[in-house]
Amino acid sequence: MTATQETGTAAAPWVGTRMQRKEDQALLTGRATWTDDIAPPGTLHMVVVRSPVPHARIVAVDTAAAAAVPGVRAVLTAADVDDEFLAGIPCGWPVTEDIRIPDHRPLARDEVNHVGDGVAVVLATSAAAARDGADLVDVEYAELPAVVDMADALADGAPVVHEEMGTNHCYTWPLATGDVDTAFAEAEVVVSGRYLQQRVVPSPMEPRAVVCVPDPVGAGFTVYTATQVPHFVRDILAAVTGIPDTRIRVVAPDVGGGFGAKLNVYAEEFLALVLARRLRTPVKWTETRSEHHQATTHGRGQIQDVSVAATRDGKILGMKVELLADMGAYLQLLTPGIAVFGAFTFCGLYDFGHYSFTAKGVFTNLTPTDAYRGAGRSEAAYGHERIMDDLARELGMDAAEVRLRNLHPKFLEPRTVPSGVQYDSGDYETCMRRAMELVGYDELRAEQARRRSSSDPVQIGIGFGNFTESGGLSPSKVAAGVRLQSGGWEQATVRMTTSGKVEVVTGTSPHGQGHETAWSQIVADRLGVHPDDVEVLHGDTLVAPFGRDTYGSRSLAVGGTAVHLAAGKVLDKAMQIAAHLLEADEKDLEFTGGRFSVAGTAGPSVTIQEVAGAASLANDLPEGMEPNLTADSAFDPPNFTWPFGTHVCVTEVDTETGFTRIRRYVAVDDCGVVVNPTIVEGQLHGGIAQGIGQALYEHATFDDAGNPTAGNLASYAVPAATDLPHFELEQLVTPSPTNPMGVKGIGESGAIGSSPAVVNAVIDAVAHLGVTHVDMPATPQAVWRAITAASGQTA
């Protein structure tokens, strides 16, 4: 990593520089444009009438009273809009050939299958009138039995979410390497645990919103939407509505967080488009927080049964994983694939010979699940780090020592791991030992022993979260191999204008990651300009018609690399023109500080800006060369990238109340070459906060009938700034060999390493009292009950 350099100094090097984000001034001064800010003249506001019951047949819908509300222009049900769609809302990851995929219409036709299922829409001249109208839509329901628990859903005689399927079983996806049965039969120790991944609500700062504007003189449409995936939105809207993709422009304005919840195409986007087409007027919908809890995808939702076989000295021989994954009532874009994605990292950083994994997808009468920050990999890390602590307790060994004995040795080229995939590079022991050094591990263990011996009511615990993740979600052939219906490439264009400024067009679409800053730094280094002279264009399918968008820690490793390669092509062309202008051989030129000159001489030189001007004038170019400095590049990597890290959490647990305070949090991460340390730290801060939220606070709960009991932020706990500790962060650099920049990605790492570190620390604090298990969220009540139960008392 390049030494830190202050903004405003020499033009290079910029990669590695701690510079402020270019995006922040507009965001922090109220000059950003959010989808809800957009309201063209004549806009009709849309409100969705949603089911208040988890499972029922729709007997009748009376819209007369709603239609009579002043300002209401239309009240529509499925019967009115179904013929606008060529198909239902698609699932983009059918993980097996025999997967069961229910018909999922933008509005429910005959049956509702979860609280929040859309039944009708009201369009009015104001949002208030639309809400008033929606309140008066009278829907008669014949309630049906609902299924909430995944295990119950698979039992004989359980209520069936989709009667036409006759079962709640969605799919079974297996993976096996080695000889697991023999490893377990011959093991000296077998340890098993059941770990729950509770449902969580993504809760970005900006709720979802969409505005669809028909072209007043043509047949096209502009769809403004708060999304992570404008290209996916365009392509899927076109496929479902029959409108050519060339007539759908999708714009993601400033987007206030996504966390996977905006990695989808939702019913409201389909409805806004077809209603704008029908009524030839703009249609707008903005989500409420209650709708976000009911109708936007939830994260997580797994029951994990994990077992490890080991020797008495702590060497792991094999691992078995059996998952139940909650699909919810429907399959959204990636719903079935989230658990499958975790299969490849459930073995973590650990080296052993035998592995088996089986995931079963299960339908329930709950809100659909889908990607949530760290999707699949966060769930996997939680499982493998919990079982490592359970193994250490069974063996009477230190939790750190068990881990250190099983880490892969350092490797700088791809290495095959127990799940059968190849990690790109890693130096796990150095990373873990550095985290232990920073946190003062030996001193903490000594303090823990003193507190235990003195029966201090406040005990300390130390928890580890070792992890890797399959970042840089990319290789198109690999995606096809697991039946993901999307390429993994990314596209970029870099062009120098006549004045010597630079425009970058990127197919990745940020929602807080700092692309404008990081991409400017990459291009500034390649072309010898200042980052302030680089403008990054994104999030608009008219400006950037090709792209695969932002998710899966892929933006830098795939999209940033595409930018790097396109800038390299521009530099190659500029070098040819400079050689022509200087009447020199190209191989004799050197390029430093934005200037071309003949190496080893004090002769004439030319700046890249002057070359850009000459390329535009085009009156003195090498024979046969086209004008202008511009280049496209598409990058489809040969492998994922595999960022990794060790997170260590130190908790203080009040054994009399169960209250947990995080005293210290240390994270050592390796995301390959760092472009901007400030952005890396910001991503880690946010991810760790979300992992802590899941570990201690958040739970999307439902009653036994399927009714949400945490339906908004008044009843759903998220951590506040005062609940979070200071994060002590450090970066190591093990470059990835899968891309020329050596980068790996960092956007999800904090959310992956944090929840196991926190929960392991909570349990470790009270393990001497007989507590070996606490499910997330480890609330004070949950911890107190665990202590009470371990002591043999009645809670």
From TrEMBL:
Domain Aldehyde oxidase/xanthine dehydrogenase a/b hammerhead: 29-145
SUPFAM superfamilies to which the protein is assigned, alphabetical: CO dehydrogenase molybdoprotein N-domain-like, Molybdenum cofactor-binding domain
Keywords associated with the record: Molybdenum, Oxidoreductase
Superkingdom field: Bacteria
Entry protein name: Molybdopterin cofactor-binding domain-containing protein
Taxonomic classification: Bacteria, Bacillati, Actinomycetota, Actinomycetes, Pseudonocardiales
